[in-house]
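pls design
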């Protein structure tokens, strides 16, 4: 066989093999999605001393998309879309806006306050993908001393009763932690009494303003938690800790009018 004929035969065989391979590819599975919906679950709390009712609007990033001449899309930039808030709330001191399922990513909060009528603040932060979290609005008692603090609580998928949530929702016990929203008080110890329990938790470092503790696990039951700064008793709160329940105890406001309450996380 001539060399040219061999080359021609090899070419035909190669094309045939390629067509066979392409024909065997299963395109009915593992189709890539056009987009992925990244989500967060967010709750907002007003702990601003002297600020009165905080009116809070949250706005999200809106990607700026450009289409190329070949038809492909690409994200040029992410900018806040102020046309429509994705969360709106008017919260008195110590009040909470329950969890909302929202897109993850960059956010802007615009807040005004009945107690500081001349004040209007804009805060920026990111709500993290697949996290359940609280955002605390805190302050030092002045219109210029207001800030936001983000505290993640768990992965969204770790739901009560799910396999992913089994380790943090054991039957017969619950969890509680502390967040300090008071600008002029520090918690050094937490005393817990209830049933057969009479114990003291000493955090590894004092719980100062805008800082929280980790969760602590207790057998389901009713407990009184007392918060101390050294030998000074600050405040106390009583809470029934349900089986598989998770809670956050708060102290907030200025020292002269210190308050406490418990929020249900799950």
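designed seq:
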């Amino acid at each position: 066989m001539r060399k040219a004929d061999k080359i021609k035969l090899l070419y035909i065989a190669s094309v045939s093999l390629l067509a066979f391979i392409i024909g065997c590819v299963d395109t009915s599975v593992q189709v890539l999605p056009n987009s992925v919906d990244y989500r967060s679950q967010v709750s907002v709390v007003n702990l601003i001393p002297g600020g009165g009712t905080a009116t809070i609007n949250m706005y999200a990033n809106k990607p700026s998309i450009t289409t190329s001449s070949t038809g492909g899309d690409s994200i040029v930039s992410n900018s806040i879309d102020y046309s429509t808030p994705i969360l709106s709330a008017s919260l008195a001191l110590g009040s909470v806006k329950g969890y909302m399922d929202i897109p993850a990513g960059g956010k802007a909060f615009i807040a005004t306050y009945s107690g500081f009528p001349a004040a209007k603040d804009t805060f920026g932060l990111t709500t993290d993908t697949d996290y359940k979290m609280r955002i605390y609005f805190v302050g030092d008692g002045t219109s210029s001393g207001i800030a936001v603090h983000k505290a993640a609580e768990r992965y969204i998928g770790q739901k009560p009763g799910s396999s992913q949530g089994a380790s943090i929702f054991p039957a017969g016990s619950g969890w509680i932690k502390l967040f300090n929203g008071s600008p002029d008080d520090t918690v050094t110890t937490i005393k817990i009494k209830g049933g057969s329990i009479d114990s003291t938790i000493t955090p590894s470092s004092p719980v100062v303003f805008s800082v929280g503790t980790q969760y602590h696990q207790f057998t389901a039951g009713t407990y009184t938690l007392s918060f101390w700064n050294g030998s000074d008793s600050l405040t106390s709160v009583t809470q029934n800790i349900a089986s598989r329940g998770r809670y956050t105890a708060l102290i907030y406001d200025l020292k002269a009018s210190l308050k406490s309450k418990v929020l249900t996380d799950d």
